[in-house]
Amino acid sequence: MPDHIDESLLASPLGEERRSPRGLLIGWVMIALVVLIVAVVWLSSGDNTEEAPGGGESTGSERFVGTMVAAETTDTTAALEVVLWPYESDPPILYHPTALPKGWETCRVVEDASKGDRFCDPQDPDRWVQVRVRQARDARYDGLPPVGDDDNGVWVERGATNEVAYRRSGNWIVVRNDDTLPAETLVEIATSIPVVGDFNALYGSYEVPLALEEVTDDDLADLMADFGSEPRVVRGDAEANVYAADASICGFHADGYSVPDFAWMVPQPRLVVASVDQPIVIGYSADKNRAYAVWDQAGYGWRLEGRMTVEEIEAAALALLERIGELPTISS
Predict the structure, then answer these.
(1) Are 42 and 15 in contact (CB under 8 A)?
(2) Which residues 6+ apart lie within 8 Å of 30 measured at CB?
(3) Residue 25: what pLDDT?
(4) What is the value of pTM for the model shown?
(5) Phi and psi for 314 in degrees, rounded to 5?
(6) Is 74 exposed, middle or buried (0-12, 13-18, 19+ CB in 10 A)?
(7) What is the average pLDDT score of the chain?
């Protein structure tokens, strides 16, 4: 280095901690980029749980469409809130629900209740509920986890498919839905079924028991005098059958059972309440062109059937109620 250059001139007059305006600008830009990157990473990897419609929590795997949630979890509709509306099928079958989502309708009815009737959204047939009646001896429903409601339901399946069952007398009422309704909504639909939620209300009052063994064959034959000449009486153990040309009636010992217990003896049962507050179950089979009526009276169950319309057999059952009421009882 030449001697005539002063080394102090080589030092920056700004000092070690000062920078040029251009350097400061670059520095602030770098800091801003770092902060932005950190924020993006934190938001994408942190806990982003949010409140879902209906008060539930989003799992981060849900897809929101309006107020409907299709969650990719074991209960895909857990956050879906569905409002149920009063519903009445035509005719009002005893194992049909009386509450369904608005706009739903009956979309399949079969006479074999074990195969199940179906109720669906006509705008979206994939949204449906199916109701089946299975015999109580079906072991698949034993020992299942309870729903925890007042109607003693059990979960058959719970998850992507929800299926709940209620035992009533000798049958299970089984209600199923595949992945389109919350489990809690399915329970509400199931308990709206008359023979599930209103089971006890279907019982009639017991009169003085009938002394069937003391009733003569002529008196029994007179019960069916309107259905053809010379009705035939066949007696069995604690029962009596009267066969006429156009119809038959069977009086059998109810053994403490009542209408809800043997309503399953007829296809597509629906309830009729007589003027004397006597519940009568009416059924009809289009395949057999036969109508049925079942009721409890004087300690016995009575089952009437014949080639009649629903209206005709209802009238016949009401007339028989009066005639049976005139038969001798144990106390008479």
Answers:
(1) no
(2) none
(3) 47
(4) 0.61
(5) -65, -45
(6) exposed
(7) 75
